[in-house]
Amino acid sequence: MSTTTGVFPVWENQFTVDIEGGDGSEQTKQKAIADATSFSVSIDGKVQEWDAMSEEGWTSRLVTGKSITVTINSKRHIGDAGNDYVASLATKTGSDCSTTLTWTFPSGAKLVMPCVVNVTEFEGGEAVDVAPLSADFMSNGKPTFTPAA
Q1: Spans of all domains in the chain
Q2: How far is CA 147 from the centre of its chain?
Q3: pLDDT band, very low/low/confident/very high, at 59 (cuts 50, 70, 90)
Q4: S-S: 100 plus which of 18, 20, 55, 120, CB 3.0-4.6 Å?
Q5: Phi, psi angle pair for 42, to nearest 5°
C-alpha cells in the first residue's frame, strides 16, 4: 500500500488481526478479515471534572484516560484465515477473546492495539442475505501508534 495524501476512500484503511491471539509482532500471524464492508471507530475519553472556586463557576476538565473500539462489519467468508478466526470467537469467553488488531492508515501511520474481540453479529439474516460477521475490537491496554514516515 502506498502512502496517501489529500482525501481518500475509506477502503484504503487496512486491518489485520493476529489469528493466534498474540501480540501482533509476527507478521505471518497477521491476517486481514475478508469481505469487510465497513468500520467505525469510537474513542472514549475518561474525563474528570471539578468546579474550583477560583474559576468563578466555570468547570475545569482533564482527560485522564482513553479507550478505543473499532467495529468491523463483514460478510462471513468460510476458508479465510482472518474471517474464520473472528468467527471462532463468537462462542468463546475470557482470555480466548484476546488478540491484537493492527490498523494501517492511508497515510502510512499504524496503530497496533492489544484488544478483546466481542463478536456482535454472526451467521444470521434473511434467506437471500449473505451471512454477516461483525465484531467490536476493544482496546485492552495502551495501543502503539507509529506516525507515517
Answers
A1: 10-146
A2: 17
A3: very high
A4: 18
A5: -125, 125
